[in-house]
C-alpha cells in the first residue's frame, strides 16, 4: 500500500502542491497564488482533489502538510500574520482542510518547511546547526539548533526577513522589495548584495550555524555572487573561527523543498 502525504507550499506568488513519499515528489501541481480568500479556497480545493485522483488508492491519503508564508499558530492552525497574503490573516487553514478532506492536517511557516526539507533530504544533510533563508516575494527564515527546529514561544522564531537593518527598514524591504521596485537594475542588485551580506553576518554572529542554506526564487541567481558573499559577509563577523568557517550553500531541492518540508511535518515526533 502506497502511503502518500500531500505537501503544500503556499507562497506569495505561487502554490505548489505535491504527492510526497519518503521525501520524494511523485506528482505535483503549481498555480499562481490567488488574490482573495474565496478564490484561494476554491483553487486549493481543486488542486488537492486533482492530487488525490492521481493515486491508485485515493482513500488512503489521510495526511496533509501545509507551509504558509507568514506567522502560523501551529497548534490551532490559524494564520495570524501573512504580510504578503493579507487576505489569509486570521484564517484557520487547519480547520478548513480537515473539514474539506477529513484528513490529519499539520501546518507551519513555509521557510521552516524549506529548511526541514533541506536538512532531511538536501543540502543540510549531515549538519546539526543550520540556518535557512528564502528569497521570494518576501524573505523568510528557519533555524535548526542541535538537530531541532526552533519555533520559539509563539511559533514565530526565524523571521529573518524582518530583522531591522537601516533607517527603520527590515531586510525584506531593503533586498527583495527594493530590488523589485527598482526593476532589478544594476544599482538595485548591488544594494541587494550589500544588504544580504550584512544580514548574513548578523545571522552568523547571533546563531553561529555550521551552514546557511539559501532558497527561494532568488536562489537560482545566487550562485553568481555566492563566493563573494562569503568574503563580504566575513568582514562583519566577530568570531575569528566563525569568520574562517563561513559556509553558505544553495538548497538542492529547488522549488520542491517547501512541499517536501510540509509533508515532512509528519516525520517529526
Number of helices: 9
CATH class of the largest domain: Alpha Beta
Secondary-structure element order, N to C? EEEHEEEEHEHEEEEEHHEHHHEH
Q: What is the number of E strands? A: 15
Strand content: 25-35%
Helix content: 25-40%
The best one-word shape is globular
Sheet with most strands: strand arrangement: 3-2-1-4-8
Instruction: Name the average pLDDT.
Output: 90
- Compute the number of structural domains: 2
Which structural category do the helix and sheet elements fall into? alpha/beta
Task: Tell me what the structure shows.
Helix 3 packs across helix 9 (257-263) and helix 5 (186-207) packs across helix 7 (226-234). 36% of the residues lie in helices and 27% in strands. The model has no long low-confidence stretch (mean pLDDT 90). The longest helix is centred in the last third of the chain and has 22 residues, at 186-207. Strand 2 (14-21) and strand 3 (24-32) form a beta hairpin. The protein is an alpha/beta fold and 269 residues long. The protein starts with a strand and ends in a 6-residue tail after the last helix.
Amino acid at each position: 500500500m502506497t502511503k502518500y502525504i500531500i505537501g503544500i507550499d503556499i507562497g506569495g506568488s505561487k502554490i505548489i502542491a505535491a504527492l510526497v513519499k519518503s521525501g520524494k515528489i511523485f506528482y505535483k501541481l503549481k498555480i499562481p497564488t490567488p488574490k482573495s480568500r474565496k478564490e484561494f479556497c476554491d483553487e486549493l480545493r481543486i488542486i488537492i482533489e486533482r492530487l488525490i485522483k492521481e493515486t491508485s488508492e485515493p482513500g488512503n491519503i489521510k495526511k496533509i502538510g501545509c507551509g504558509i508564508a507568514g506567522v502560523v499558530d501551529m497548534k490551532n492552525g490559524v494564520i495570524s500574520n501573512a504580510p504578503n497574503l493579507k487576505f489569509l490573516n486570521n484564517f484557520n487553514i487547519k480547520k478548513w482542510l480537515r473539514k474539506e478532506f477529513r484528513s490529519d492536517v499539520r501546518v507551519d511557516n513555509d521557510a521552516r518547511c524549506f529548511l526541514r526539507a533541506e536538512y532531511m533530504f538536501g543540502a543540510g544533510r549531515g549538519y546539526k546547526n543550520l540556518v535557512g533563508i528564502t528569497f521570494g516575494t518576501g524573505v523568510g527564515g528557519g533555524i535548526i539548533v542541535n538537530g531541532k527546529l526552533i519555533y520559539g514561544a509563539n511559533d514565530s522564531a526565524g523571521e529573518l526577513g524582518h530583522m531591522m537593518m537601516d533607517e527603520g527598514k527590515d531586510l525584506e524591504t531593503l533586498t527583495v522589495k527594493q530590488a523589485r521596485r527598482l526593476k532589478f537594475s544594476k544599482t538595485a542588485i548591488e544594494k541587494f548584495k550589500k544588504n544580504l551580506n550584512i544580514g548574513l553576518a548578523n545571522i552568523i554572529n547571533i546563531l553561529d550555524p555550521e551552514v546557511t542554506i539559501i532558497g527561494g526564487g532568488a536562489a537560482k541567481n545566487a550562485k553568481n555572487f555566492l563566493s563573494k558573499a562569503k568574503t563580504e559577509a566575513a568582514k562583519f563577523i566577530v568570531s575569528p573561527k566563525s569568520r574562517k568557517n563561513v559556509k553558505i550553500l544553495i538548497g538542492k531541492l529547488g522549488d520542491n523543498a517547501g512541499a517536501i518540508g510540509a509533508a515532512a511535518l509528519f516525520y517529526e515526533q
